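Q: Putative antitoxin VapB45-like DNA-binding HTH domain-containing protein, please. Structure only.
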Amino acid sequence: MSSDVVLDARFTHAVYTRAQTARHVGLDPDDLHRAAMWTVGRARIGKQIGTMSNNPPPIVTSLRRPSPPEPRIPFIGLAEAVVYAAVRQGTSLPQIHAHGALSIVRKSLGGAHPLATRAFVTDALAVLRAYAQHEDAAPEIVQAVTAPAPSTPSIPPIPSIPSIPPTAPPSPSARDLPVPPAALPADESEFALLVARVAAHVDYGEDGYTRRIRLPGYSTADVIVDSGISGGRPFFARGGPGADVETIVRQYQGGVPIGELAGRHGIPSAEIAELANLTWPDPEPPSVAPPSNDHLR
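A: Structure for Putative antitoxin VapB45-like DNA-binding HTH domain-containing protein:
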C-alpha cells in the first residue's frame, strides 16, 4: 500500500455506520455486516494464545472503533459495498460464492482496495473468465460469468448530475465518465451486467480510485456521495452539495414540512419523503465476535 493511500481520508476516515452503508447500497444489513467483519480470530495453542490471520480481509473495509455508535465505514468501504451489492443483487451467487468471486478478483488485480478502482470495471470479468477455465472452479461462479442471465435485470437510466455551484469544483457524472469499451459487457452474463451497473453508478478519480457514487439503494431519491465534498456526506443530486441529506432529514423531523424543504432546496417532494423518516446517524449494532477457536489445543 502506498503512502498516498495511507494518508488519504477516503481510506482512513470513517464516515458511515454499517447500517447506513447497507441502506445506501440496498443491502440487507446483516449481509453487509458479515461482508465488513474482520475475520482475524484468536486460537489457543497449548498454553499460548496465537492470532489466526490466514483468512482474507473483509470485502467491505470497516475500521475498528471503541464504541458501537461511531461510524466504521470509510468512503472507500462504501465504494466496495457498491460492488458487493451489485454482485449480491445482480447474480444468483450465494454469499459464500459472492465473497469467493470478489476475493479472486481482488487477489488478481492486486494493490490496495482494488474493488474500489477502475480496474474492477475494466478487468474483473476477464479475471473470472480465466478462473472459470480451471478444473476446480466453483460451478456457481462459472455460471455467473459465462452463461446468459436467466432474466436481464434492468439498469435504470442515470440522469446527469446537476452542475456543482462555484463553491465546489465541478465534477462529471458517472454517466459522462469515459469508460473503455472493454469495460462494457460483451454478453448478458450475470457478472457482465453487474459490471455495467457498477460503471453506471461510479465515477473514478485520476488516481483510479472511486471519487463519486450515485447511491443505488434508493428507488426514488437521487443521492450522491463525493469524496471531495463535505467529507463524503450524502446530498440530493438535484439540490447540489448544499442539500445535505442528514440536514434535510433532521429539519423534517424537527417540524419543517416536506413541501417547504422541497421548495427551499429544489428537490422533488417524493425524494425527500423516501428518506424523511430515517434515523441519522443510525445506531451501530455491536460487533459480532469471531468464532471461538479454543478447541485448537
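A: Brief note, in case it's useful. The beta strands are 14-16, 41-45, 48-52, 73-74, 202-204, 210-214, 223-226, 235-236.
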